[in-house]
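Final report, closing paragraph on structural work. Over the funding period we assembled a curated collection of sequence-structure pairs, and we close with a single example.
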Amino acid sequence: VAALQAYVTLQSIPVEHIIVTGELEHTQTGLIQDMIQPALVGGFLHADLQRIRAQLEELPWIYRATVQRRWPNALEIHVVEQLPIARWGDSGFLNHEGEVFQSESSRDWQALPRLQGPEGSAETLVAGYQRLVEILAPLHLSVAQLTVDERGQVQVVLAGGMQLLLGSGDFLERMHRFVRLYRTELAARAGEVETVDLRYETGVAVAFAGPSHVAGI
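Its predicted structure, as stored:
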């Protein structure tokens, strides 16, 4: 009888405390607590932790959530928010894994570089963007926009407006060619450069500001 009473008592323990941890900038703790209430109807022991985790990860700014029981009557929820590294198209964002998510706070992130490409290309574009950042950092240049069209043609717009036309292949070789050219020829005139066309096998065409001013190098 005592064992049965103890079992019944355990089954009836409610969840009295919800502890939310993590660095939350875009998600309110109260929203999390309200959202998971339907999953707590069964009490402390029967709370559906997997359901709670799935519900939380459906929120726009939550990248990952973990949910654990804390005796005798609490749930501890740890939240990792999305880390946007770029804008995607007109209204979306990309996280560090190349996953697309949406947010109503888009105005807060307009300074992020913009990536755009065909459906299914987000992960590849993020990898390309991260490689560009590494290559351009020693030159103190940064990416404002990276675009890939349906034919795979890559175009990069740097902060300041300089455009790099990279074509559809030999991405690294062409970027290293640009680095050499920038250091030796273009750095001193960077403000005048409008377009650097690197789609040639060996040479480069540079368009400077001004009427029909194009140089082949």
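The chain has five helices and 13 strands. Residues 6-10 have pLDDT under 50 and may be disordered. We thank the funder for supporting this effort.
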